[in-house]
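ok, trying the design again with the full structure, not the truncated one.
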């Protein structure tokens, strides 16, 4: 079977919210072709769509490309080939940040992607009978949905803590298994380690503080600045004077006790 030659240029078509929409939005799409293939974006069945408005969702895009065929999946992203981090469990939903996005529309068959690239018009995302909220009405609805009742919040917290405790217990069990000796007598060193902490006695505390004081004095620069040299000279003179006065008192005491024999 001869493969169809596809153009790698973007195709522009109007995307309407409903059939009665007065000001449609223009989107651009082409075949998604990259060197590294992935299971969520299979080669030959993925359509790369850009300039999507914030109100575009998976159901709306599936309806827009329904003439081409059945859409298998739709994944949104803020920029092309964005690496999605592992989702972390949170108690509260993240705040919405409406912005223009890109999407990867995956069809069930290769022939359906060819039909999508040959479309001259897109279907509206929604029928006029569908209840669609935009602007302030949509923001109010999203805000009301983000508020949790105390009962639901309590249940969510309890479920989150149970999941956290289970994961922590599983991690500790894996760590204990790694610390055990294998058949060859090797032991895997884990993050926790086997060194147990000890209570510091006064003697140990004094020894540690003395060592830290010595290290601190060793790092200090002595007589490096001019004011340090001046202060050290003054301290030396004061020390000499104190020693001279002490020697005078000692000589006076020896004279009084008549033990002073200079010759």
């Amino acid at each position: 079977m001869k493969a169809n030659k596809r153009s790698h240029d973007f195709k522009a078509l109007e995307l309407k919210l409903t059939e009665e929409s007065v000001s449609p939005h223009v989107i651009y799409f082409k075949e998604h072709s990259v060197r590294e293939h992935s299971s969520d974006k299979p080669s030959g069945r993925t359509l790369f769509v850009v300039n999507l408005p914030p109100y575009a969702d998976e159901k709306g895009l599936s309806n827009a490309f329904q003439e081409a065929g059945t859409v298998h999946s739709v994944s949104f992203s803020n920029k092309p080939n964005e690496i999605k981090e592992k989702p972390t469990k949170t108690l509260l939903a993240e705040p919405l940040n409406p912005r223009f996005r890109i999407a990867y529309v995956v069809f069930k068959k290769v022939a359906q992607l060819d039909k999508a690239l040959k479309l001259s018009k897109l279907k509206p995302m929604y029928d006029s009978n569908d209840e669609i909220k935009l602007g302030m009405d949509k923001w109010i609805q999203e805000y009301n949905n983000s508020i949790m009742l105390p009962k639901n919040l309590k249940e969510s917290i309890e479920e989150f803590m149970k999941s956290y405790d289970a994961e922590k217990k599983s991690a500790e069990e894996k760590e204990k298994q790694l610390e055990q000796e294998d058949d060859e007598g090797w032991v895997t060193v884990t993050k926790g380690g086997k060194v147990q902490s000890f209570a510091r006695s006064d003697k140990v505390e004094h020894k540690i503080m003395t060592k830290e004081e010595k290290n601190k004095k060793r790092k200090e620069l002595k007589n490096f600045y001019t004011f340090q040299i001046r202060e050290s000279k003054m301290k030396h003179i004061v020390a000499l004077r104190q020693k001279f006065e002490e020697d005078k008192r000692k000589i006076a005491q020896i004279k009084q006790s008549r033990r002073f024999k200079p010759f």
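Keeping the full-length input from now on. The beta strands are 11-15, 25-31, 46-52, 71-77, 101-107.
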